[in-house]
Input
Amino acid sequence: MKKLIAIAFLGLAFSSQSQTIESGSHSTTGYVKSDGTIENSSHSAKGYIKNDGTIENSSHSTIGYIKSDGTIENGSHSTIGYVKNDGTVENSSHSTVGYVKSDGTVENSSHSTIGHASGVKKEWAAVVFFFFKF
Output
């Protein structure tokens, strides 16, 4: 029983973890919690990314979707972009709009650093930086 309580406590501790979203100059602009909650720098919820890929605004209205193949759709299921396995981010016409590097660095199409999202899933980082403004 003590093991079960300890495991439950650890689960709660890790579920509240968040990763910092930073600008290109490393100032904190927000957070992405492990449960998919997107917060601004004051920790106010601005959106949510659900486990099934549904993207919601702060009022829990669906505004988009992340598909398992990296396709990003708006709330009407129209494709607005793609996140490739290598972190390349493309718009709906397959033009490169940016990159999410393995270290969490986010770059625009000219490879200039526009932000940092270390520890954040590349699809989630792409949604935050390129597709939906929370």
Remarks:
- The helical segments are 2-15, 122-131.
- Confidence is low (pLDDT under 50) at residues 1-16.
- The two ends are 42 Å apart (CA to CA).
